[in-house]
Design goal:
The chain is α/β, with parallel strands linked by helices and about 500 residues long. The chain contains 11 helices and 16 strands.
Length: about 500
């Protein structure tokens, strides 16, 4: 061996050593999947949040999510009513494909009647089940509505490690109920008495205190659910968690601890509400509604504060939205509060006011603060979005697209071919700027309205006769977007309409 070869051999040895060191070095750490807190309000209108234009109801904590993150100004719920909207959210399937397409009741209003709505089938590929399989602790508080006690649809059978709240939507019409449910077990609430949540008064009671004593006293269910939500966060702060906080507020009845009424003007309410439009009476209905929203906002604030205390806020995606548009009964006043923000329709309508919902999201370092997006999206998008963040692909087909590019400001956002809704003899489909609406299917009427949302977001001008080529394309989508439902048939589509003669 010559002396000139030694430097080369030394170099080769050094390279081999470096290669071995590289092979044995630990792989770079992958970013930890984010925690997820998903707030779902109940019947909260687009115009009832400060960051979406409300001037009457203070929502500083919800607004802080918008300030730290993004407003989704073209986001839609899954349905204009509770159960089906929640089904879309948790399955990623819109109401043309999902199992629960309307509210369905397992019982009546009498004490002891069976609880619950149509249950999700066993083994449904819910968001919670898939996140749990990805290593997340999964918890839910609030209103469920997708299966009563001891059914396949109960939350503990649909992927949730923990649940505390109302299984039954009817029971949730009373915010001082006799009981909630926790992990499959009935949870009594002190000495709360059962009563009909739709009681009417023939005439006003003698004093406000008498109203409060009869209808607004005892254990407030929302205080219990908030406590349980915070306990879930503390118990799971050392691992990825998904908290689904589905508050029943501000769904009527109008009930809130009386001290929450104090900030709101008495001149708002010249007359009491006596229960004549369903749900329980209240001496100050407008103040009560605003107070309920303020109470919900405070609960959001308590969760945000807890995330900070636990040191996990910087790696937590927080989303706040509503299950459908604002309601029209129970003493609520959507006109006074401009609840639908000038849009057509309210809850139970597939027009914009019934399905377009206030939506904000924050994630420090990933969602730029103070931003907004007008990308048209809907509840079916959250399942693929949250699973992508968890490092998983959906295990079953969905109607949604991942919103990760929109939220993070990245390129490559996949657009929707269309968005679709159906409910109780109504259909709506949106394709880009165009939206088609049918509202008279129960009468066997297939007539279709056509709106250009870019120039007419309030859906005031029907362009069906002026744009027949667009109308024909949208009518074809009504058929392409759905499969028939035996349990929730669509009149004039799945079933013949009986003659009224």
């Amino acid at each position: 061996m010559t002396t000139r070869a030694l430097p080369l051999l030394g170099l080769l040895g050094l390279l081999a050593a470096c290669s071995a060191a590289t092979r044995n070095a630990p792989a770079p750490e992958q970013p930890a999947p984010p925690n997820i807190v998903f707030f779902l309000a109940d019947d909260l209108g687009y115009g009832e949040v400060g960051s979406f234009g409300s001037e009457l109801i203070p929502t500083p904590h919800i607004d802080s999510i918008a300030a730290r993150g993004m407003r989704l100004t073209q986001h839609y719920s899954g349905s204009p009513v509770c159960a089906s909207s929640r089904c879309v959210l948790l399955t990623g399937l819109h109401t043309g494909h999902c199992e629960v397409r309307n509210n369905w009741e397992n019982g009546g209003w009498d004490e002891g009647d069976p609880e619950g709505q149509w249950p999700l089938a066993a083994g449904t590929a819910t968001l919670a089940r898939q996140l749990r399989d990805a290593g997340y602790a999964t918890g839910a508080v609030g209103k469920w509505g997708l299966g009563g006690p001891d059914t396949s649809g109960a939350p503990e059978n649909q992927g949730f490690d923990f649940f505390c709240g109302y299984l039954c939507q009817r029971i949730a019409h009373n915010h001082y109920p006799t009981h909630l449910w926790r992990n499959g077990e009935r949870l009594p609430l002190g000495d709360n008495a059962w009563y009909d949540a739709h009681q009417r008064l023939a005439e006003p009671l003698e004093s406000e205190e008498e109203y409060y004593a009869r209808f607004n006293s005892g254990v407030y269910a929302h205080d219990v659910m908030q406590e349980q939500a915070l306990e879930f966060l503390y118990a799971n702060a050392d691992r990825p968690f998904f908290l689904y906080y589905a508050s029943p507020i501000p769904h009527a009845s109008l009930q809130v601890p009386p001290e929450w009424l104090l900030p709101f003007p008495r001149e708002w309410d010249e007359e009491p509400y006596l229960g004549t439009k369903g749900y329980l009476p209240h001496p100050r209905p407008r103040a009560a509604y605003a107070a309920m929203v303020a109470h919900l906002d405070a609960q959001v604030g308590a969760v945000l504060d807890t995330l900070e205390k636990l040191g996990v806020a910087d790696n937590t995606l927080v989303v706040f939205t509503s299950d459908n548009g604002p309601t029209f009964n129970g003493g609520t006043d959507s006109t006074f509060f401009a609840s639908a923000a000038g849009m057509r329709g309210l809850k139970c309508s597939v027009h914009e006011g019934g399905i377009k919902v206030p939506t904000v999201a924050s994630w420090p370092g990933r969602i730029a603060p103070g931003t907004s997006s007008d990308f048209a999206s809907a509840f079916e998008d959250w399942l693929p979005t949250l699973l992508e963040l968890a490092g998983r692909a959906p295990v079953a087909a969905t109607d949604g697209v991942s919103l990760v590019p929109t939220l993070t400001g990245a390129e490559g956002q996949v657009p929707h071919d269309h968005l679709y809704w159906e409910y109780a003899g109504q259909q709506a489909v949106r394709e880009g700027r165009w939206k088609a609406v049918r509202t008279r299917l129960r009468k066997g009427d297939l007539s279709t309205m056509l709106f250009d949302l870019e120039t007419d977001p309030a859906e005031r001008h029907d362009l069906a006769s002026e744009r027949p080529e667009v109308l024909a394309r949208m009518q074809a989508l009504f058929l392409e977007a759905r499969t028939p439902s035996e349990q929730f048939p669509l009149p004039a589509i799945d079933l013949p309409v009986e003659s009224e003669g």
